[in-house]
Every structure is written in structure tokens, then in C-alpha cells.
Design brief:
With 244 residues, the protein is of the alpha/beta class. The protein has two domains: 119 residues, Rossmann fold (3-Layer(aba) Sandwich); 96 residues, Winged helix-like DNA-binding domain superfamily/Winged helix DNA-binding domain (Arc Repressor Mutant, subunit A), CATH 1.10.10.10. Helices cover 41% and strands 20% of the residues. It is built from eight helices and twelve strands. Helix 2 packs parallel to helix 3, helix 6 packs across helix 7 and helix 6 crosses helix 8. The N and C termini lie far apart (61 Å). Bound molecules: calcium ion. Calcium ion binds next to loops. The site of calcium ion (CA) has 6 residues, from loops.
């Protein structure tokens, strides 16, 4: 069994650590080099079993996980890590393997990139995951509830209630509402919302954002046609308004 490489115990406590689980040395080296330059501590494992062990031992900020691994598959690694931890997991999948992406996301991966990918994009995705997990307090265990009007967003329970009643909400709608409510009373620009909810370098355009805003209004606004809480700031973005 190949031991994890590049373990570095000298870094400062707050330095974010990425764990790369990948058997292709060239890819691991490229990721290690790029993330080191960006100020990350980087650890790696060349097979799934070592990857699971390293995730337990190192408590990384983010796991970058290749689907195609010798022995224990990336999907099994994903399932195992997720059963033990909320650490953000970004899967690397082969071009065209739609099934792997879906399976990875269903097993609890947070994002995926298709090979060949740009390292710059991977860095951006990792940063987005770290921002997100620190924002939502994934590891803090504190019970945080955001409130505005009749709307309550329970961060840890991942539940939205309107007038005390839980509503059905999709993950992206939840993330979007959370981004808006955390800026209550302030402008949330389109760029900021897309960055936080879909990740930097999202290519879906702003249409996706508008569709989600519309759906969200239908779920939380008393009168979706004339929104009181999720207000459009013309030409710039949206603003959450806390009023009854
Ligand atoms: Ca591989």
C-alpha cells in the first residue's frame, strides 16, 4: 500500500488543507504544485483505502477525489468519507461519464469537475466549498436560524419554514435563500449569488439564477407577483428585505 505523500505538519493551524485522492501522479503533482502556490497545505493518497485513512487522520478542509481509482473506487471512498464527515468533496470524473457524476452527487459529493479540467477552475471550486462550509458552520455544530418576516431558515436542520411550517425546498434554492438572508438589507449582486450558489466559473449564465429566484418567491413570498422579501435591485441583483 502506498503511503500518503507530501504530509506537512509544519503549516499554521488556520491554513486550509486539501486532500487529493488520485492514482495518476502527474495530476496529483499538478494539483499539489498549484494549491501550494495558492497557500494551501496539500496531502495526497494514491488509492481509495489510503484516501479514507488520510481523511480521518488529517481532517482536511476539502477532499478532491478521483472516481477512477485502483481497488476501492472513488464512489466507495465518497460514501465512506461522507458517512463519517461533512467535509466538502469534489469529484473528478471522466469525460462523458454522466452516471458517475450523478452517483457521486447522490453519495454526498458537493461538486464535480470533468477531466481534463483547468487547475484554476479547481482552485476556484475548492475556495467556494471552503467559503460555503465556513459560512454554514458545517463543523461548528451551533444551531443557527436566519429570520426575516415569516421566513425562517434553519442552517443546521437544512430546513426552511414559512409561518412556522416547513416547506419543500431544493438544495440550490436553499443555498440561494441563505446567501440572500445573510445579506439581509444589503445588495446581493448577481455575480456574488452565482459564485456562492453555483461556484465561480459557472457557465449556466444568469438565466439559472432568475429561474431559481422565481421558484423561491413562489415558495416563500405571500404574493410572488409583488415580492416583499426577495426584491429585485434593477440591473444589479437582489436584496432580502426583512419585513412582515
Ligand atoms: Ca485515476
Amino acid at each position: 500500500m502506498t503511503p500518503s505523500r507530501a504530509d506537512n505538519h509544519l503549516e499554521a493551524e488556520h491554513q486550509p488543507r486539501v486532500l487529493v485522492v488520485e492514482d495518476e501522479l502527474a495530476i496529483t503533482d499538478a494539483i499539489t504544485y498549484a494549491f501550494s502556490l495558492e497557500g494551501f497545505a496539500v496531502s495526497s493518497a494514491a488509492n481509495g483505502r489510503d484516501g479514507v485513512e488520510a481523511a480521518r487522520r488529517l481532517n482536511p478542509s476539502v477532499v478532491i477525489l478521483d472516481v477512477m481509482l485502483p481497488g476501492m473506487s472513488g464512489l466507495d471512498v465518497c460514501r465512506q468519507i461522507r458517512s463519517e464527515s461533512d467535509v466538502p468533496i469534489i469529484m473528478l470524473t471522466a469525460r462523458g461519464s454522466e452516471a458517475d457524476k450523478v452517483a457521486g452527487l447522490e453519495l454526498g459529493a458537493d461538486d464535480y469537475l470533468t477531466k481534463p479540467f483547468s487547475i484554476r477552475e479547481l482552485v476556484a471550486r475548492v475556495r467556494a466549498q471552503i467559503r460555503r462550509s465556513s459560512r454554514t458552520g458545517t463543523f461548528s455544530g451551533k444551531n443557527e436560524v436566519l429570520r426575516g418576516g415569516a421566513i425562517e431558515l434553519d442552517v443546521d436542520a437544512h430546513e426552511v419554514r414559512v409561518g412556522g411550517k416547513p416547506i419543500e425546498i431544493r438544495p440550490k434554492e436553499f443555498d440561494l435563500l441563505e446567501s440572500l438572508m445573510r445579506r439581509s438589507g444589503r445588495l446581493a449582486s448577481r455575480e456574488t449569488l452565482i459564485d456562492e450558489v453555483w461556484g465561480v466559473d459557472h457557465f449556466g449564465g444568469t438565466k439559472t439564477l432568475d429561474v431559481h429566484i422565481k421558484r423561491l418567491r413562489e415558495k416563500v413570498e405571500p404574493d410572488p407577483g409583488s415580492p416583499r422579501h426577495i426584491v429585485t435591485v434593477r440591473g444589479l441583483g437582489y436584496k432580502f428585505v426583512d419585513q412582515q
